[in-house]
Specification:
The chain is of the alpha/beta class and 249 residues long. It has 7 helices and 14 strands. The chain is globular, with a radius of gyration of 17 Å. The two termini are 25 Å apart. The protein binds adenosine-5'-triphosphate (ATP) and magnesium ion.
Amino acid sequence: MKALTVVKFGGSLIRNSKFQAKFFKEIAEISRKRRFILVHGGGPEINVMLEKFFVTSKFVNGLRYTDVDALSVVEMVLSGKVNRILTTELIKNGANAVGISGKDGKSVICKQVKELGFVGTPIKVNKKLIEVLLKAGFLPVIASIAQDVAGNVMNVNADTIASSIASAFMAEKLIFLTNVPGVFDKNKKIIKEIKVKDVDVLIKNKVITGGMIPKIKGCVNSVKKSVKEVWIADGKSGIKNIKGTVIKK
Ligand SMILES: Nc1ncnc2c1ncn2[C@@H]1O[C@H](COP(=O)(O)OP(=O)(O)OP(=O)(O)O)[C@@H](O)[C@H]1O
Ligand SMILES: [Mg+2]
């Protein structure tokens, strides 16, 4: 079986067209030689569309509460816009991309985080559909929406989904591409390597905050589940000559 790479494409990157051409070309080329899964978020795009539809949100401890109106905008943007842009560009560059979400084939089953409304956290990955696609030479592009056991649709953090999928498939590599060149220390210098045992202190001391928290927690989870190489890196530098922060056991 060919080695598998899972890449999470940060929603923050979708609006930066400067480096996208290089990124899509690189992924298309790699995905023709090895198995590849792309998971994506869409934070900034969702915010723009919520404003356009005049959907106001309340926040719980700094996290958005997703009500039923927000959820329909979230799914429309993730599956209808961001996922379409990514598959279109990948196909244009020669990849065999297929856009799905965690819902399709019950690939990701989640559990509701009640205090945040229609927000879920993954509890199970069903590998069947993704396996079928990979075996047939397709590149699955997965939007971060899933259903719970009762079928209710939930918005799920894309970092957490990427990590769950990488762990379930025992991927060789998991790479989080984002809008910063890696994890900063308290002096805003990139930390080249982080050990699993050091993560709690970095979060406790508020060196790692906000959107970096689910990313680093995803890294820890996957490293513990035997994913060999785990990175948080700059979307601009791409994945061939990857630079950023590596997370090690
Ligand atoms: N120690 C840290 N080092 C680097 N970035 C940090 C750190 N702590 C918090 N951050 C924040 O984390 C952000 C990256 O996470 P964010 O969720 O915003 O992007 P993303 O996950 O790439 O996009 P999306 O959530 O839309 O998929 C950075 O832009 C930065 O503001
Ligand atoms: Mg994020």
